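User: I've been trying to design a sequence by hand for this structure and keep getting stuck. Would you show me what you'd pick, starting by listing the structure so we're on the same page?

Assistant: Good idea, let's start from the same input. This is the structure you sent:
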């Protein structure tokens, strides 16, 4: 959470910082601030609220060509101007922005207070500024290195000193930091979206590294002052991909991009000759892959839901025992890491702390972990043993949509690859592959249901509670539909396996509580129909997402949406966009901030 940005070069820094923060706003939007250096003067401007508010109070002619900025997702201390970053040291000469959590800040603060230090905020961050000041003897980089060695927890920081104009020092442990290499100018940010308008040449920092940037160059060293040899990578997407392009918000745009993003996730990954999947980056030999007897998927939120679909598929189609685990749970369970178990860490951002730490724990125990990530160069992608990029392109809205269906595409491809190594015949492989190839077009057809879905959303958006119900592959989709709705509309929603409602949740059914049923024409259709009847018999309104032409479902439901027909294993793709659109239109109806829902942030880098 939180986004940080830094700029040093020939241009005025303030507009670059504010624009960079706007791009990072998805990481947190409680408060924002910048510090800009002009001569030996360090001016700090900060405010609660979003970047638009900050922009309004930053003078258009603010001088200074070096600066740092921050957009906050509050952890320590309320949402106040005083707690907003940047923070200063007591001399006022050091300014600092921080993303992460200093776990031992209380002890440090008490010691400093005992020596007379006065703190102006309730944040954990302010202690870092104080520590740096204590170690400062004319060299900011040295002082930063000494200070961070006293910290426990996580940090991505950018620091400036009034006596060292043009210099920004960045350090990371557990929170992402990227250096942008421009022509006569340098940037530093939590991710590349903040800098892609200025440069596409980037250097991804690792934990324990410190960057010293000035307009004419940079160095990266470790905490023992040894230089680290870094590669300059090139960002392979354009600014256009992070613009709204005529859509009212990013979530809407990203929902409608799915036919292309799924196509990209599949592109070059289906081998017609052998009717199998082709995944180049796994870094495992066919023999090693073949010897895997169990698959464990670790993820959070929407990525966990994609993982649940993946586990169902890998087990039922590839016949490999598979399970999806919540990263925040597995990490502290002292997990058993058996040989011949393949772990898959799934994450859009590739920075989610829960998933990253769970993955590190598994690797520490000798397990093999592959990453399924969207963000290229992200920490999970770099720290895993190999993996798959899902190529959905930058996902900006806090609610994940296109990354979910691209993660599904990765799971279907992996399932095909593994199934064809085991029992699946070439004929069946071809059938699976053809169905997979048809997905982008069929998803495009589900998007034409938008007006119908909007009308249904209008009808139900005032409900206080919703149930989302489905069986088998539709169970994770029910969880995902409920998550989408609560996340952006703030309507309470629960996802359940439809077979589970009689074990308790059916007590919630009433004329005021609509149930959203996912009813594809799969082998469990009849059972799901019975569950629908159980709800109807108790006066509960039913919205059914079924298959076009399925009159039984249409007749039983109060409202019906029909998606195109497809091989029954592929309905997770076709139910996704309608569920996302339903949540989106409910949120619009309730006037919610769709892209930046309250209390949330896109990249969850705290536990
Ligand atoms: O970046 P990740 O996929 O690891 O993020 C995991 C969750 O934080 C994320 O999916 C979250 O649940 C989304 N806001 C859901 O829309």
């Amino acid at each position: 959470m939180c986004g940080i940005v830094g700029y040093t070069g020939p241009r005025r820094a303030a507009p670059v910082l504010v624009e960079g923060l706007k791009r990072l706003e998805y990481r947190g939007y409680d408060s924002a601030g910048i510090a800009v250096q002009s001569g030996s003067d360090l001016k700090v401007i900060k405010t609660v609220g979003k970047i638009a508010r900050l922009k309004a109070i930053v003078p258009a002619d603010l001088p200074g060509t070096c600066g740092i900025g921050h957009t906050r997702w509050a952890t320590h201390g309320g949402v106040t101007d005083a707690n907003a970053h940047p923070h200063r040291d007591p001399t006022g000469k050091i300014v600092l922005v921080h993303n992460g959590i200093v776990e031992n800040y209380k002890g440090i603060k008490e010691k400093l207070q005992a020596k007379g230090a006065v703190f102006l905020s309730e944040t954990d961050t302010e202690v870092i500024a104080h520590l740096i000041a204590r170690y400062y003897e004319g060299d900011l980089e040295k002082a930063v290195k000494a200070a961070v060695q006293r910290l426990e927890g996580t940090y991505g920081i950018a620091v400036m000193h009034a006596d060292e104009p043009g210099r920004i020092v960045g350090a990371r442990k557990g929170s992402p930091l990227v250096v942008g290499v421009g022509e006569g100018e340098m940037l530093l940010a939590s991710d590349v979206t903040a800098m892609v308008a200025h440069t596409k040449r980037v250097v991804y920092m690792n934990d324990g590294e410190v960057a010293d940037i000035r307009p004419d160059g940079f160095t990266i060293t470790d905490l023992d002052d040894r230089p680290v040899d870094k590669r300059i990578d090139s960002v392979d997407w354009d600014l256009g991909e992070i613009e709204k392009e005529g859509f009212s918000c990013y979530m809407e745009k990203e929902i409608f991009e799915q036919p292309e993003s799924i196509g990209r996730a599949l592109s070059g990954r289906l081998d017609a000759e052998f009717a199998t999947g082709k995944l180049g980056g796994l870094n495992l030999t066919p023999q090693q892959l073949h010897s895997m007897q169990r698959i464990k998927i670790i993820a959070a939120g929407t990525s966990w839901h994609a993982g649940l679909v993946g586990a169902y598929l890998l087990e039922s189609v590839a016949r490999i025992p598979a399970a999806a685990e919540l990263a925040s749970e597995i990490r502290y369970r002292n997990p058993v890491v058996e040989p011949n178990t393949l772990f898959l860490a799934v994450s859009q951002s590739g920075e989610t702390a829960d998933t990253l730490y769970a993955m590190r724990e598994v690797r520490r125990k000798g397990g093999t972990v592959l990453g399924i990530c969207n963000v290229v160069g992200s920490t999970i992608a770099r720290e895993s043993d190999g993996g798959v990029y899902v190529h959905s392109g930058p996902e900006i809205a806090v609610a994940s949509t296109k990354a979910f269906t691209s993660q599904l595409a990765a799971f279907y491809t992996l399932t095909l690859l593994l199934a064809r190594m085991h029992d699946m015949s070439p004929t069946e492989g071809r059938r699976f592959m053809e169905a997979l190839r048809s997905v982008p077009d069929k998803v495009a057809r589900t998007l034409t249901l938008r007006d119908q879905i909007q009308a249904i959303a209008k009808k139900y958006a005032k409900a206080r509670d919703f149930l989302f119900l489905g069986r088998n592959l539709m169970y994770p989709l029910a969880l995902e539909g409920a998550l989408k709705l609560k996340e952006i509309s703030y309507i309470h929603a629960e996802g359940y396996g439809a077979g589970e409602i009689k074990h308790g949740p059916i007590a919630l059914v009433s004329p005021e509580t609509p149930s959203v049923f996912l009813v594809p024409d799969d082998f469990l259709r009849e059972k799901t129909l019975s569950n629908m009847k159980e709800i109807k018999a108790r006066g509960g309104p039913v919205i059914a997402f079924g298959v076009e032409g399925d009159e039984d479902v249409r007749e039983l439901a109060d409202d019906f949406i029909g998606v195109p027909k497809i091989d029954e294993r592929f309905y997770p793709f076709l139910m996704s966009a309608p569920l996302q659109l339903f949540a989106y239109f409910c949120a619009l109806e309730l006037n919610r901030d769709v892209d930046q829902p309250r209390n949330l942030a896109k990249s969850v880098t705290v536990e």
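That's my pick for every position. To get oriented when you compare it with your attempt: DSSP finds 19 helices and 26 strands in the chain. Residues 44 and 402 are 38 Å apart (CA to CA).
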